[in-house]
Amino acid sequence: MNKISFIDLKTQYSVLEQNIKNSISNVLESGQFILGPIVEEAELLLSKYTEAKNTVTVSSGTDALFVSLLALDIGPGSKVFLPSFTYTATAEVIALLQATPVFVDVDELTYNISSIDLNLKINSYKKSELNNSAIIAVDLFGQPADYPILQKIADEHGLHLISDAAQSFGGVINDMKVGKLAPITTTSFYPTKPLSCYGDGGAIFTDDNDVAKKIKSIRSHGISNDPYENIRIGTNARFDAIQAAIIINKLSIFDEELTQRRKIASIYDQELGEYVLLPRIQTEMKSAWAHYTIRTKKRNAMRKFLLENDIPTMIYYPKPMHKQIAYQNYHNHKDALPNSEMLCNEVLSLPLHPYINEDQILRITSKIKEFLKK
Ligand SMILES: Cc1ncc(COP(=O)(O)O)c(C=O)c1O
After folding, report:
1. Whose CA is nearest to atom 7 of ligand 1?
2. In which domain, by residue range, is 202 found?
């Protein structure tokens, strides 16, 4: 029996090995390691894929968020509404800029930000307190947040809208791809993400040419066209050429991989529907299936049983942000976020990657059924 991996980057490498080696060798011979023509080529291909007018690559998904907030001048006084059920990167960039993160509950079925709780949280502020404020929606596990509704809420209250699409590159709403769904979209190329490189990396997508220009300047220390003219405060968030070469190669098989991910998710759906709560994908949406995350009240015991049977699983995430020590000063602890808290106790992510085969999936689902019959 072949071993089941939670995510399998080795098999993916064996598919692309020769091309990746050639591309890396070309970069080594070019002598241009930071930004430059290969990075520009990756940006063009990413824009072509997403249909976003501009792609600016950066050094990580966290920096993609940080640079985007800097470009919007988010800082002291700004409120930034975000889901509590997310990875810490979404929240920390807000606090680093001395803006106030406002934690919002999520929908218990889609796991994404709840528009009902978002409205409640926004309405708890006076209009004058929401100057230069923003919403960061997160596309958790690969399913886009409900951007048509979120954009309406953002417009109504004069808020910026950013999509944290670290997990959802390849996701779709009504044929429109992630990268095009919000005025600014950020993604991550961390190795376990749907489109990934062999190190840290990320990108920002926007149709707004002025914002793109500002973001490009901020990622390189706030320079103008002249590299020694600093026209604003920036940082070093540049992408490197070797990682760009990896992204170009992986993009060439990305759609095939996405088809595989969707096929695997549909097998899980068919096999597990009667046994556990399945991730709910809205009808007009397609997930990028970064993770297939079920819900069960017997989560911890199920995880232990699966591990004893050589089936790796992960808990994304065990604690919501509003309960983390790091953010205790930002949350009124009388204010419960019940769905975020419940999900942290019940979610379990199952193995999902393009190279897992149907027999392996059926082994996983039969072990889950065996556990539930015990
Ligand atoms: C929702 C979310 N936002 C942001 C990030 C940060 O991306 P990176 O690890 O590339 O900095 C991640 C990565 O794990 C993430 O899952």
Report:
1. 61
2. 9-251
